[in-house]
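pls design
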């Protein structure tokens, strides 16, 4: 949520960046077959080569970005989605689009590029002014040089212009935009009777034969992947810095020659409680959320912990940290949130604050005024930075020494002792976990798993922080959990299946006993009414259920749906209580946005067809297919 709030702090730049992201997805998937054909060339697009090193660089960048967006993405997931082929397809499409842009005279001037980059909130410091140091740090954090980032941005803007050129004929009629708006924004309120499966599980006891059959039929579910444990020696500038000497004169010289680095913007450290709401939530729904926050604020006034309430009530992922957002500047947050936070004194709690994300309660914990760090305040950090730079320069020499000693027969523990560094034990983990935890690539994980127990690597494994040397300590092959180990889980699964069947039978019986739309008198007091919901399928307590939502939107008000619907915790009988159709005023407020969104969608469809046509005409020949395996 914090990232989302920061991203939305911009305006037109964010919209362009969003379009560029969409464009990247379009570029990643085109038509046209890849002919397999070996060299430093991976493939030819007509007569133009794609180099292996360029592909590998792009692949590493895309995988890193994917893993940042989806932290739990495993190597198996990437193999399943054929990421390498997708990266190659993107590179091919980019090459073809670059040609078309040149043919049409579409380009980006240095002034345009500069204006675009300077307008990005990520690169702005105090007063929303472009800050060169912010810019360089942000770009290098992505593993890119400013020159590479600018070239990538230039190409993305050119391709966005090309998309607009191709889609310039896209037209949208107001009538169809309004129909789509009414369809998408219509809401239902339903009455429902939930029959929880847990009410029917008493007395359900699976037979031994059922348990054995379930185990046999679901053997794949009980497989345990191969695992391995390691001792790791991390060799990185950060932990080798203590071996480097940095004199006081160098520290002072750095401080004097980099004054901009020590300017500190006004910032606060705060927590918040968020009750999420769509930007277009009805007034009654918004008022209800605001009242809930006022109740929480009253509890805070009586001495309850803000962090505890945030953990229990906040819809933001920061709830896991008690709502802690860390330190941030005014520019890092959307305006209403920033204004409220920076108006508070440390320890104070705001009134409810409305943003595009919902309603917030904000508590400021600490405050830092704008200013410049003194030399004494900055010296320790400068010394560490300079020491790490010297350590980075010496890293290859240290690695060569360590590898030489391993080859000569020393143990990894002896090498670590000679460097005065600790070995870091990693308990037995699966290969995918190793990739996620250490940030190693798939090939390096394969190499580590292939070691014999007691054997150390003789090739360093590169990671973001530096390099690793590893010694395998445990090796557990793939196995299947025994029946006794999983018996309890199987019994519970079978009890749930049987209880769900009984819940459905009861629901069918209740429907048969309804008369003139009324349930039997004994059950009427258990009927609940949902909050308004849209076609997306989230039906209050019943959860995400697109099938149920579709049936409800197609039903007549006042009548129970003819079939019970399975939900996460049982079966539900549902009756449409009320349809809420958007008003003319709501349409008027959304009209321009809807027209623009539909036109943009049409442009993207036309552009995708354009890309597919280019791919169909191009000759793509793979000369190093092993790189894609």
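designed seq:
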């Amino acid at each position: 949520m914090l990232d989302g709030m920061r991203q939305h702090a911009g305006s037109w730049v964010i919209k362009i960046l969003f379009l560029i992201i969409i464009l990247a997805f379009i570029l990643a998937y085109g038509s046209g077959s890849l002919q397999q054909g070996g060299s430093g060339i991976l493939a030819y697009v007509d007569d133009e080569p794609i180099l292996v090193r360029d592909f590998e660089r792009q692949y590493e960048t895309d995988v890193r970005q994917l893993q940042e967006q989806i932290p739990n993405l495993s190597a198996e997931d990437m193999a399943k989605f054929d990421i390498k082929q997708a990266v190659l397809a993107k590179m091919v499409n980019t090459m073809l689009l670059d040609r078309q842009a040149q043919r049409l005279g579409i380009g980006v001037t240095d002034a345009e590029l500069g204006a675009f980059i300077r307008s990005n909130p990520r690169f702005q410091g105090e007063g929303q002014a472009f800050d060169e140091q912010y810019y360089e740090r942000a770009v290098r954090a992505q593993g890119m040089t400013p020159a590479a980032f600018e070239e990538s941005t230039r190409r993305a803007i050119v391709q966005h212009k090309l998309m607009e050129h191709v889609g310039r004929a896209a037209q949208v009629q107001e009538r169809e935009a309004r129909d789509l708006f009414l369809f998408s924004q219509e809401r239902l309120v339903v009455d429902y009777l939930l029959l929880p499966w847990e009410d029917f599980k008493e007395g359900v006891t699976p037979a031994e034969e059922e348990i054995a059959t379930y185990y046999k039929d679901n053997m794949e579910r009980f497989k345990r992947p191969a695992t391995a444990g390691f001792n790791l020696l991390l060799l990185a500038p950060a932990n080798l810095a203590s071996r480097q000497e940095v004199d006081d004169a160098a520290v002072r010289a750095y401080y004097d020659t980099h004054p901009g680095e020590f300017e500190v913007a006004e910032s606060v450290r705060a927590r918040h409680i968020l009750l999420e709401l769509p930007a277009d939530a009805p007034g009654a729904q918004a008022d209800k959320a605001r009242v809930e926050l006022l109740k929480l604020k009253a509890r805070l006034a009586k001495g309850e912990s803000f962090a505890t309430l945030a953990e229990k009530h906040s819809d933001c992922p920061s709830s896991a940290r008690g709502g802690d957002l860390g330190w941030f500047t005014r520019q890092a947050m959307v305006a209403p949130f920033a204004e409220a936070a920076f108006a508070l004194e440390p320890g104070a709690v705001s009134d409810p604050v409305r943003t595009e994300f919902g309603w917030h309660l904000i508590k400021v914990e600490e405050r830092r005024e704008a200013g410049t760090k003194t030399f004494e305040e900055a010296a320790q950090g400068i010394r560490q930075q300079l020491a790490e730079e010297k350590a980075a320069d010496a890293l290859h020499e240290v690695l060569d020494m360590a590898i030489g000693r391993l080859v000569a027969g020393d143990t990894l523990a002896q090498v670590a002792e000679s460097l005065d560094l600790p070995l870091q034990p990693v308990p037995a983990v699966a290969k995918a976990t190793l990739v996620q935890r250490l940030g190693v690539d798939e090939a390096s994980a394969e190499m580590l798993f292939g070691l014999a127990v007691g054997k150390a690597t003789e090739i360093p494994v590169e990671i973001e922080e530096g390099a690793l040397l590893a010694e395998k300590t445990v090796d557990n092959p793939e196995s299947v959990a025994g029946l006794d180990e999983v018996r309890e889980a199987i019994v519970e699964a079978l009890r749930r299946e049987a209880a769900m069947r009984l819940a459905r039978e009861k629901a069918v019986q209740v429907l048969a006993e309804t008369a003139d739309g009324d349930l039997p008198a004994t059950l009427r007091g258990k009927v609940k009414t949902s909050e308004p919901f849209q076609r997306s399928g989230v039906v209050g307590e019943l959860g995400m259920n697109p099938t149920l939502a579709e049936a409800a939107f197609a039903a007549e008000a006042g009548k129970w749906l003819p079939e019970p619907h399975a939900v996460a915790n049982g079966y539900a009988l549902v009756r449409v209580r009320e349809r809420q159709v958007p008003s003319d005023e709501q349409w008027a407020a959304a009209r321009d946005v809807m027209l623009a969104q539909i036109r943009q969608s049409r442009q993207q469809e036309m552009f995708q067809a354009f890309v597919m046509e280019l791919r169909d005409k191009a000759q793509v020949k793979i000369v190093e297919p092993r790189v894609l395996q």
